[in-house]
Amino acid sequence: TLKAFIFDLDGVITDSAEYHYLAWKTLADELGITFSRELNEELKGVSRMDSLEKILEFGNKETEFTNEEKEELAKKKNEHYVQLIKKISPADILPGIEELLIEIKSAGLGLGLASASKNASAVLESLNLKKNFDVIVDVNALKKGKPDPEIFLKAAELLNVQPDNCIGVEDAIAGVESIKSAGMFAVAIGPKNQFSTADIVYQTTAELSYNEITERFINR
Ligand code: G6P
Ligand code: MG
């Protein structure tokens, strides 16, 4: 039986995935590395340091920096990002999300957040959605990032529910992989061809349907 929904944040609840992209793009430009929205798809859901490694690889510069310099670069990206998300307000909640959260709550289901971002709590606060969540996984306490299932399993554990009684919602390839390897039902947001392992794919959050998702969950 269905007990809980566990959401990713960036690109699902709000369009902060775009701000992550813009912040990385600024850094990549400074480093003379070609970086595009297409390459950014591989970074969604991926931790800050792992994202930096990937960008350096895109530019064949992975051996050019010491660990200390890499820390500096990651810090710089985060400063760009923190600047960009200052303007976030409840108006930036993506279409369909508030309605879905209300239906989840009225059905008496648990609600968890499984975001890899260290800025997740601040973003949720700016959206005025923090109070809606029963649990928010602390990424600092995790060993492995997405696509490892650890973050979704942790959310289920904190919600005190079994993974197979959970539905995960993600916009990242690594995120859907994380949900599926946690043994959960996966709802993906984005292009259909990108998510062959998801249980349902919606092009945009506006198309999310509580009734359709729960019906498919029951008939899985
Ligand atoms: C999310 C985003 C990634 C981002 C990661 C870390 O998973 O999808 O693009 O790199 O969080 O975010 P942070 O705010 O900690 O740098
Ligand atoms: Mg995301």
From TrEMBL:
Its cofactor is Mg(2+). Signal peptide: none annotated. GO terms for cellular component: cytoplasm. Mg(2+) binds at residues 8, 10, 170-171. It catalyses: beta-D-glucose 1-phosphate = beta-D-glucose 6-phosphate. The record marks 115, 146 as: Important for catalytic activity and assists the phosphoryl transfer reaction to Asp8 by balancing charge and orienting the reacting groups. The active site is at residues 8, 10. GO terms for biological process: carbohydrate metabolic process. Keywords: Carbohydrate metabolism, Cytoplasm, Isomerase, Magnesium, Metal-binding, Phosphoprotein. It comes from the Bacteria. InterPro entries: B-phosphoglucomutase_hydrolase (IPR010976), Beta-PGM (IPR010972), Beta-PGM-like (IPR051600), HAD-like_sf (IPR036412), HAD-SF_hydro_IA (IPR006439), HAD_sf (IPR023214), PGP-like_dom2 (IPR023198). Belongs to the HAD-like hydrolase superfamily. CbbY/CbbZ/Gph/YieH family. This is Beta-phosphoglucomutase. It comes from Metabacillus litoralis. The gene is pgmB.
